[in-house]
Design a protein that fits this description.
single chain; 139 residues; alpha+beta; Nuclear Transport Factor 2, Chain: A; 6-stranded mixed sheet; 4 helices; globular
């Protein structure tokens, strides 16, 4: 993360990235409002318990943010696109956040590359034993 320039980013975004990269699920959940909704290509996560369960299952996929391509924020919104690596595969990640009471209340996020298929197939099992290797192809 030392190469990722987070200067000028919203504090809640900085905290979320730090927690994701350090596999800190408790810290990550502190960035979400208790009534938060997360919309991803795999589906919609409603509320704290669903978000915690799903992100907890994905904490071991070695997701690393490498470089922000686009970033902007206001008092109540954040938008970003970033180069990421996920399980060793280079990806483009994106996210749009609506904040309430200084916490993430609604988040739309996803991955634009080949790992999309892996996440879609493993949406309900997360990091279950025997998971398939990362796909080699790109779209």
């Amino acid at each position: 993360m030392s190469t990722l320039d987070l200067s000028g980013c919203h504090p809640i975004f900085v905290r979320q990235i730090e927690c994701l990269q350090n596999k800190d699920i408790d810290g990550l959940m502190e960035t979400y409002h208790r009534e938060a909704t997360v919309v991803r290509f795999q589906g919609i996560l409603n509320g704290f318990d669903e978000i915690r369960d799903t992100f907890g299952r994905y904490m071991d996929i070695q997701a690393r943010y490498e470089r922000l391509l686009e970033y902007t924020h206001s008092e109540d919104t954040i938008f970003m696109r970033a180069v990421m690596s996920v399980r060793g595969e280079r990806e483009l990640g994106f996210g749009a956040y609506v904040l309430r009471d200084g916490l993430i209340w609604r988040q739309v996020a996803g991955i634009e590359g080949g790992m999309r298929d892996w996440f879609a197939q493993n949406g309900s099992t997360g990091h279950a034993e025997g998971r398939p290797e990362a796909p080699g192809g790109r779209r």
